[in-house]
């Protein structure tokens, strides 16, 4: 199948590779030299106009950063939504708001273009291995027709409904990710004040009832104190902002998420915006004075 791809970033690139390796032709939208080189290095064709991307694709995938990027792609006379034809499809894998996604859905419905909201959960390593999970909403017939493409980079595909349900689910999952980072940071600071070394505390946590795939995945990062971003502080701040905004609009109380959002704000103000969100462990240790000589 001919696939158009927008967003060859940390997650988009390994996902697109899985589809390419499955035998699909990839044409990437690339507006600069770096993007064109990334496409060429991976054996993809590349174009610099939305019209050319639509012309060379049966289906378009997007893996972009936020609402603004999605709407830039979707809205306007020269945007992708205006270039797609009846019978084509668009799968968006990004974490964006239900309202922005719904705007895209309405524009595509008017053109008889199928639209699946399919945000993903997992790490760059899982993307490369093809073992992400995806939460999908949109017309069930389109989901069933396009599911083999999703299977190229995911191990599970959860169909949640015909509207924006997957957007809500992804935000709920990411709220849990942020909460895990915050509570783990507090727990490690507390155990550290009791004289327990970080590595020993993580060993216990990772072999206890409270462990999770997420904590296991972050274990080495935390023990080594190297917070290279798999999921940056700035990204979780963006997702929590969307969650809180949607919650206010729907009268869905999010008191813990609001408090945790402020912890990430503190990390951001301390210069950690582009470090991994589990840098909260370092932040809380410093606040507790762990590792400092007693006064």
Automatic annotation (TrEMBL):
GO terms for molecular function: NAD binding; NADP binding; oxidoreductase activity. Residues 168-281 form the 3-hydroxyisobutyrate dehydrogenase-like NAD-binding domain. Gene3D superfamilies: N-(1-d-carboxylethyl)-l-norvaline Dehydrogenase, domain 2, NAD(P)-binding Rossmann-like Domain. The keyword Transmembrane helix does not apply. The active site is at 170. The keyword NAD applies. Residues 2-161 form the 6-phosphogluconate dehydrogenase NADP-binding domain. Keywords: NAD, Oxidoreductase. This is NAD(P)-dependent oxidoreductase. It comes from Mesorhizobium helmanticense. The lineage of its organism: Bacteria, Pseudomonadati, Pseudomonadota, Alphaproteobacteria, Hyphomicrobiales.
């Amino acid at each position: 199948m001919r696939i158009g791809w927008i967003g060859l970033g940390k997650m988009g690139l390994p996902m697109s590779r899985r589809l390419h390796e499955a035998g699909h032709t990839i044409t990437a939208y690339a507006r600069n030299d770096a993007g064109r080189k990334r496409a060429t290095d991976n054996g993809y064709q590349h174009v610099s106009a939305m019209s050319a991307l639509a012309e060379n694709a049966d289906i378009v995938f997007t893996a972009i950063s936020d609402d603004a990027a999605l709407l830039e792609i979707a809205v306007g006379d020269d945007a992708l939504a205006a270039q797609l034809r009846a019978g084509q499809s668009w799968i968006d894998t990004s974490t964006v708001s239900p309202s922005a996604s719904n705007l895209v859905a309405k524009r595509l419905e008017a053109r008889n273009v199928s639209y699946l909201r399919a945000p993903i959960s997992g790490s760059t390593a899982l993307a490369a291995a093809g073992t992400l999970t995806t939460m999908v909403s949109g017309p069930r017939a389109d989901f069933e027709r396009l599911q083999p493409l999703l299977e190229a980079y995911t191990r599970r595909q959860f169909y949640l409904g015909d509207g924006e349900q997957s957007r809500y689910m992804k935000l709920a999952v990411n709220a849990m990710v942020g909460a895990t980072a915050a509570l783990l940071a507090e727990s490690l600071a507390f155990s550290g004040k009791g004289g327990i070394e970080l590595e020993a505390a993580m060993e216990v946590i990772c072999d206890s009832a409270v462990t999770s795939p997420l904590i296991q995945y972050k274990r080495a990062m935390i023990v080594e104190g190297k917070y290279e971003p798999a999921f940056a502080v700035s990204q979780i701040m963006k997702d929590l902002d969307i969650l809180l905004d949607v919650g206010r609009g729907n009268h869905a109380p999010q008191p813990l998420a609001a408090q945790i959002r402020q912890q990430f704000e503190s990390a951001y103000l301390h210069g950690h915006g582009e470090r991994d969100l589990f840098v909260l462990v370092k932040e809380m240790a410093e606040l507790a004075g762990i590792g400092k000589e007693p006064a």
